[in-house]
Amino acid sequence: STAGKEASGTSNMKLMSAGALTLATLDGANIEIKDAVGDDNVEIFGLTEEEIAGYYQRGDYHARDFYDQDPRLHAALDMLVNGQIPGIETEGRDIFNSLLTYNDEYFVLADFESYLAANERLDKLYQQPRIWAKKALANIAESGRFSADFTVQRYGREIWHVVAKTPEDDHEA
Q: How far apart are CA 28 and CA 19, in angstroms?
């Protein structure tokens, strides 16, 4: 998701519990994941919320500039509309237009180069199994705080201000 758009990150939390290393923008649940496991155990890419706010304030985000200046991005987007990927004519054109004709409201093109660099770092890291395993275990170890049980307990305590009760409490009364 785009920083500042606050998309739900529960899928990343589920993947984290299976040992996946998060590759994400710094938004929503990804911030919580990073805070839980530390900077060394996630791979963050893309614009910050402040950088995006700056584009909005200045009104100077032009998605086509990224398309025109990066041949890799240009080729990838052209594949959406030039027939290289069969069967996606309508969807491909819709995506292409949302990014270029309608100026990429989620700043995807601005994040492209940063994403590629982050992905390359993860590829290199994966070639070091011991380090990768250590980072995966750190993610598993810290994922418990995102479980439904823990979340309900925390909400009960911090938001609803209720005291947890067990079935045994009912029998003792």
A: 19
Give the domain range for residue 67. Answer: 62-103
Quick check: 99 and 63 in contact, CB under 8 A? yes
With contact defined as beta carbons under 8 Å apart, do 3 and 117 qualify? no
> What residue ranges of the chain have pLDDT lower than 50?
none
Residue 173 lies in a domain: no
Residue 105 backbone dihedrals phi, psi, to 5 degrees: -60, -20
Report, in angstroms and rounded to the nearest whole number, the Rg of the chain calculated over CA atoms.
21
* Residues forming a β-bridge with 44: 24
pTM: 0.82
- Say yes or no: 80 and 128 in one domain: no
Which residues, in sequence order, are CB contacts of 42 under 8 Å at separation 6+? 21, 22, 23, 24, 30, 33, 34
